[in-house]
Amino acid sequence: MPIKIPDALPATAILESENIFVMTEYRALHQDIRPLKVLILNLMPTKIVTETQILRKLSNTPVQIQVELLRTASYQSQHTDEDHLASFYTTFDQVRDRNFDGMIITGAPVENLEFNQVDYWPELCEIMAWSRTHVHSTLHICWGAQAGLYFHHGIEKRSLPRKLFGVYEHRVLKPSSPLFRPGLELLATSSEAGVYAVKTEDSSQFFIMGHPEYDPDTLAREYRRDIDKGLDIAVPAHYFPEDDPARVPVVRWRSAGQLLYTNWLNYYLYQTTPYDLSKVR
Known about the structure:
The chain is α/β, with parallel strands linked by helices. It has 9 helices and 11 strands. The chain is globular and about 65 Å long.
């Protein structure tokens, strides 16, 4: 949460340049408070695991958040009980006339399919188009980022000889970094894994190529699942000590993942979203 300080205090400009949450007396007196409304489009097959991981990241903030879960109507989940979906999830037709402060579009295990081969691709395109006018800021994760970059900006995904997954070091670039695509800003890259984080100049769309919300054992389970399927897959990079799958993974991404979600909520929703959601866009 921001600190409230006198408008003319010299420290104000310094703190703001360091991205410290600062609220002037004038803004504090005129601020309307309400919960942030965040819609999560969960495309993962293990929906309960994914919703738990993301909600854990969203919960570590003093900002009050009202979360709603969204599923596709054009594709029926094969891995989640229908009673759970009926009880806790909504469909696009039920929210299309509403506005949200934020939206998260998760990944999905369909990276080897062309976008138009995905069963729910037309519905996803409709939802992404809707997000331009009904959501203040949208966070796209992993395959969701690939889909968003392709739909919104025409950037094709590129297939690799082998699956690329693991824990990679990334270099955070300055906000003034050159654009690698008109309207887009490159935020973080890895010498091994390539582009990690991208956003639009107006911060209405974020594209994160990995899963900063993953639990300690998620990659291990994913690796063993693919091995059991007989797939030719390498050990996740920099994940198991000495790349030995028999050892317990080293969790190095948790604090960075928490910061990513918390900063998105604080800087790009709480600090900038309109109080009246009808004024989104």
